[in-house]
Amino acid sequence: MIVGAGGVARAVALALRDLGCSRVYVMNRTVERGRELCSLISSWGVDCIALGLQQNVGVKIQLLINATPLGIDGEFPINPRNAGAGLVLDLAYKPGGVTDLVKLAEEGSIPYIDGLEILVRQALESDRIWLGSFEKPTWHEVFERLRSGLI
What we know:
Layout: E1 2-3, H1 7-18, E2 23-28, H2 31-43, E3 47-52, E4 63-66, E5 87-90, H3 100-107, E6 112-114, H4 115-131, H5 139-148
C-alpha cells in the first residue's frame, strides 16, 4: 500500500512494478488523485485500487509505504499492525526524532526503514556516482550523526 499520490508515490509505484508487484493499493486524502495514480499503475499491467485516507484499511497488506509528510508532527492515520503490514517504509523523516509511523512500527515489532536512512543512502550513492568510490563516511556513520543531532 502506498499512502500518497504525488510524485514520490509515482516513483514508488514504478519501483514496485519493476520488483514484480502484482497489486497496489493507493490511499490518498483525495480519492480522485489516488484514482489518477491507479490509472497510470494499471497501464503498466499492475492491478491497482484507490482508497480514501482512513484508519480502518479493510485489506491486509504486505508493505506499507508512506509517500507523504503525514506523521512527522502528528499522528499517522494507519496502524501498520492493524493492516497486517510485514514491513514499513516511511519516506518522511524527522531529524532528531522519529515519525509517528516509525513509532507504530516499533510498537508492533514490524521491521521498518525510515526516511532519514533512505535520504542518507541516496545522498552517498549520488556522491559515489558523481565523485567516484570512497570508503568513509559509511551511510551508517552519517545516519547516526544525524540521528544524534551531531550534524
